[in-house]
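Running this now, will post back.
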Amino acid sequence: MNETFELTVHIACDDETNRWYVAESDIPGLWLEADDPWSLIERLKEAAPEMIALNEQEIIAACLAKAKPVKHGALSDDRPRPTIRPIFDSPLQLAY
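Update: finished.
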């Protein structure tokens, strides 16, 4: 069974511009912004898998460095597949 690693994506709101943006991410190169958090999350759903695919080896190496040692003799196809878990740095304020 493959171990699953969570990739954290922190989003925040810029108080001056009132724009939401990716403040920090475990996914290299993932820098997006939007008018509201829901739009940003929709953009993340599209962009994150592409950025994970482009940076897969770097992400897996970083995840493995944080994880428990792999058992001797494990197959290369048993490598972990990361998942995404967004974390909100700023409280969401419902507009409706």
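The longest helix spans residues 37-54. More later if anyone needs it.
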